[in-house]
Amino acid sequence: xxxxxIRKVLxxxxxxxxxxxxxxxxxxxxxxxxxxxxxxxxxxADFVAELSSTATHQxxxxxxxxxxxxxxxxxxxxGASVILEGPNGLLIEQAxxxxxxxxxxxxxxxxxxxxxxxxxxxxxxxxxEKSDSLLVTSQVTGGYQAKDPQMATYxxxxxILRETFEVFELVHVPR
Length: 175
Fold this sequence. Notes:
CATH topology of the largest domain: Nucleotidyltransferase, domain 5
Number of strands: 5
Radius of gyration: 24 Å
């Protein structure tokens, strides 16, 4: 259901270009147009009450958010994927492509940092982070030392971000 004027556009066969192609493609599916109808004021009141409820905010603050990250690098470039799972089935997925040359471990750190910043922006207080990089998880948890200056810089920034969460746990997940 929609209030948009797409009905008028798709029913005019004299229009040219892509819209005609779409009209032909959609004509075989018996698409019917119905206006949405008025939205009652109570719906807005319920929505505002749901968002402003202090119980909802307390649940969100102490819910354990789960962050899954993976970074990779090859000759064509590097990138990362970030999946953040929050309260009430909230799922945020990001795919990142980096415009600079970096190693696989640097891409893993970039993915971790991007995920932590996203979780911080979403208001997460408790974060469980999962990564398949043994090096990154071991350096962050203190099992390995960061001898490379670039890795030490990444580690230092992750430690600063880590302090913004009340609970932070980083686990290694085998591939």
